[in-house]
Amino acid sequence: MQKYKQEFIEFMVKSNVLRFGEFVTKSGRQTPFFINTGNYTTGEQLEKLGEFYAQTIKERIGTEVDVLFGPAYKGIPLTVTTAIAMNKLYGTNVEYCSNRKEVKDHGDKGILLGSKINDGDKVLIVEDVTTAGTSIYETMPILKSQGDVDVKGLIISVDRMERGQGEQSALVEIREKFGFKTCAIVTMAEVIEYLYNKEVNGKIIINDEIKARIDDYYSQYGAKYYNI
């Protein structure tokens, strides 16, 4: 496993973003683990987070991108910090854009916040986590309504490696349906491999009990066809 992946996993733990317990995902699944990027709250954390995203974008998708699009609401700070990091690390001056939950009918009218999206723009979707892919199916009509845009891909922080609408993983389904690249900074398989019976800040993060609950969860929701 690359060093930056190990650093990112520990970064999530220390930032209280990666948590284990009893949670419910947006898709309604009862899950023993949860990734809450809303817990990145400090300037230092957000700066580091953007750099992890930027590094993965460069390695997996490339920096030939015009606009970073972040689905509201968590996607908004993700696109901003990633845009800053891409400029800082690679000299790539990309714009950021997000959707509003409600269309604004005064002042800066419309559904978009930040940059406008024009015909021919190369757009990269920046998300926190994708479980069943629900938010991407909501996002694509918004992007396509803006014009003839070229969606280059989707990047997320953690691939939960779960079934999407069918038996394949959500990222595979999205890639095959829309025809663009999908990638994550880390996968849950990498998270489990790295943290199982390992101490971080003097505490075992994934012990035998938690590992067994994760295994049970994947026996029910794990993707049968996984190939990213």
- Regions with pLDDT < 50 over 5+ consecutive residues? none
Number of domains: 1
Q: What is the CATH fold-level name?
A: Rossmann fold
Radius of gyration: 17 Å
Average of the residue pLDDT scores: 90
Which strand-content bin applies to the residues? 25-35%
Number of helices in the DSSP assignment: 7
Q: Structural class of the helices, strands and pairings?
A: alpha/beta
Q: Which CATH top level class fits?
A: Alpha Beta
* Largest pleated sheet: 7 strands, mixed
The helix content, as a percent range, equals 25-40%
Q: Give the SSE order as H and E letters.
A: HEEHEHEEEEHEHEHEEH
What would you say this structure looks like, in words?
This protein has one domain (3-221): 3-Layer(aba) Sandwich (Rossmann fold). Helix 2 (43-60) packs across helix 3 (75-90). The strands form three sheets. Strands 3, 4, 5, 6, 7, 8 and 9 form a seven-stranded mixed β-sheet that branches. A two-stranded antiparallel sheet has the order 1-2. The chain has helices spanning 3-14, 43-60, 75-90, 134-144, 170-178, 188-195, 208-221; strands at 18-24, 30-35, 67-70, 95-104, 110-114, 122-126, 129-130, 150-159, 181-187, 199-200, 203-204. By secondary structure, it is α/β, with parallel strands linked by helices.
In short:
The protein is an alpha/beta fold and 228 residues long.
What attributes characterize this protein structure?
single chain, 228 residues, Rossmann fold, 26% strand
Secondary structure blueprint with pairings:
Layout: H1 3-14, E1 18-24, E2 30-35, H2 43-60, E3 67-70, H3 75-90, E4 95-104, E5 110-114, E6 122-126, E7 129-130, H4 134-144, E8 150-159, H5 170-178, E9 181-187, H6 188-195, E10 199-200, E11 203-204, H7 208-221
Parallel strand pairs: 3-4, 3-6, 6-8, 7-8, 8-9
Antiparallel strand pairs: 1-2, 4-5, 10-11
Helix pairs in contact: 2-3
